Amino acid sequence: MPEGDTVHQAAHRLHTALAGHTLTRSDLRVPRHATADLTDRTVLDVTPRGKHLLTRVEGGLTLHSHLGMDGSWRVYAPQERWRGGPAHQIRAVLATADHTAVGYRLPVLELLRTTDEHRVVGHLGPDLLGPDWDPEQALRNLRAAPERPLGEALLDQRNLAGIGNIYKSELCFLLGATPWLPVGDLPEETAARLPALAKKLLEANRDRPARTTTGSTRPGQRLYVYGRAPRPCLRCGTALRSAEQGDGTRRRPTYWCPTCQQGPTP
């Protein structure tokens, strides 16, 4: 599942393959930009912002994409077979003489002026893996709605950018709080270490091919709680639980340990 670390890796791959090179092919397979052609323009850079990707090309244009739940960008050599999914799932193709970048299942793909990037990412909070990271501001953002469940607050990219459903569950476990605990009920000491812990988790995984929050690389033990119910908790042995959590617009599977984590549950 794409989260801040995954997007950072995708940006690095795209930047390495495309930046500084001229596009020999441009194919944007969304109705709004089906006739747009970036051929013969040089890619300037590919920058991650939270869970967004900004591919900037000469002429003051930016291709903005978001991976959503299962989107991906793959990079291929000229004669390499594309393996990211069936052709009907391809939303973008950007090619240079040496590499071809293919975007699969992208729920967001739009071409805009680089000067208008604020329109699509300006609402985001401090980026956990970005140069604008500000732990104090992130904590202030989270505390602005003290009645809000912790899990929902962590997923709100306006508070801090980069956390998805996996890190939400894992971070709540490491904090010893259920995802339904109101932010304002977090003990002061726990709240104070939340931003640094969140950053530590993403930084530890931004260059790893397989995400782990436990430090283990063994299958089934890479994560503390996410996707593991009803298996035993790696710390206490209690059967882990799962339930849907959401704000009414989207509900997502959430995992927790009823012994290690304190607070309300469904």
TrEMBL record:
Read off the Gene3D superfamilies from this record.
Answer: 1.10.8.50, MutM-like, N-terminal
**In its keyword annotation, does this UniProt entry include Magnesium?**
no
EC top class, as a word = lyase
Keyword list (alphabetical) reads:
DNA damage, DNA repair, DNA-binding, Glycosidase, Hydrolase, Lyase, Metal-binding, Multifunctional enzyme, Zinc, Zinc-finger
Q: In this protein, which residues make up the domain named Formamidopyrimidine-DNA glycosylase catalytic? A: 2-103
Annotated signal sequence is none
Superkingdom to which the source organism belongs = Bacteria
Q: EC number(s) of the enzyme?
A: 4.2.99.18
Pfam families for the chain: Fapy_DNA_glyco, H2TH
Q: Which InterPro entries does UniProt cross-reference here? A: DNA_glyclase_Znf_dom_DNA_BS, FPG_cat, FPG_N, H2TH_FPG, Nei2_N, Ribosomal_uS13-like_H2TH, Znf_DNA_glyclase/AP_lyase
The catalysed reaction is: 2'-deoxyribonucleotide-(2'-deoxyribose 5'-phosphate)-2'-deoxyribonucleotide-DNA = a 3'-end 2'-deoxyribonucleotide-(2,3-dehydro-2,3-deoxyribose 5'-phosphate)-DNA + a 5'-end 5'-phospho-2'-deoxyribonucleoside-DNA + H(+)
**All copies of domain FPG-type, residue ranges:** 224-262
Give GO terms for biological process.
Answer: base-excision repair
GO molecular-function terms, A-Z: class I DNA-(apurinic or apyrimidinic site) endonuclease activity; damaged DNA binding; oxidized pyrimidine nucleobase lesion DNA N-glycosylase activity; zinc ion binding
Similarity section: Belongs to the FPG family.
Protein name (record)? DNA-(apurinic or apyrimidinic site) lyase
- Which organism's genome codes for this protein? Streptomyces aurantiacus JA 4570
